Amino acid sequence: MNALTEPHYRCAALLTIDVQRDTLDGQPLEVPGTSAAVPRISALCNAFRSAGRPIVHVVRIYRPDGSNAEPVRRDLVTGPTPVLHAGHPGHQLAPTVAPSDTTLDDDLLLAGDLQSLGPDEVVMYKPRWGAFFDTALHTHLQARRVDTVVIAGCNYPNCPRTTIYQASERDYRIILVTDAISGLYDRGVAEMQGIGVRLSPAADVIAAMEGAQS
């Protein structure tokens, strides 16, 4: 990895992508591997909180009428089973990922505002696959002098991968946490290496964050 893509842990922010109850085992939008990744995602959150570094929990919230859903998902969203619906328990963050008393403020988030969960920890709604599309994420990170994003969460092929490419287009240094992401596959690993993404297990990221603060 060259000097222009090497992570700066002192300038890093953690992005958790779609780590919501409906994506866990046995739930309507179950994504295999997400439940298994949650303990490591939670450990990353704790490490970033301890280091005083920013955390952004990026979520999808669908209106039950499907009006804000991707066209490919409108039939699913308007079907008989609630899927990441506003006001429904399944769209809440997965247990242990956020502070225990967290309840998403749907009106605030759907309006494009950030919901604060604690010191420099927020929730942000994204209207499409990528976290930078039509959101305040880039402005939020730049205001905090973030140049490195650490990506963890749900279903690499869709929202995490799109977010990573959008971050790369904005010249962020990027870490993909390989055991804190669901849906990662061999070709995906090669794709990420090809655009300068650092692939690291959670334990290495946590150790680096601790070392950066010493």
Automatic annotation (TrEMBL):
Domain annotation Isochorismatase-like: ranges: 12-186
Top-level taxonomic group: Bacteria
Transmembrane feature ranges: none
GO MF term set: hydrolase activity
Entry keywords, A to Z: Hydrolase
Keyword Cell cycle assigned: no
PANTHER family: PEROXYUREIDOACRYLATE/UREIDOACRYLATE AMIDOHYDROLASE-RELATED
Protein name (record): Hypothetical isochorismatase hydrolase
Taxonomic placement: Bacteria, Bacillati, Actinomycetota, Actinomycetes, Mycobacteriales
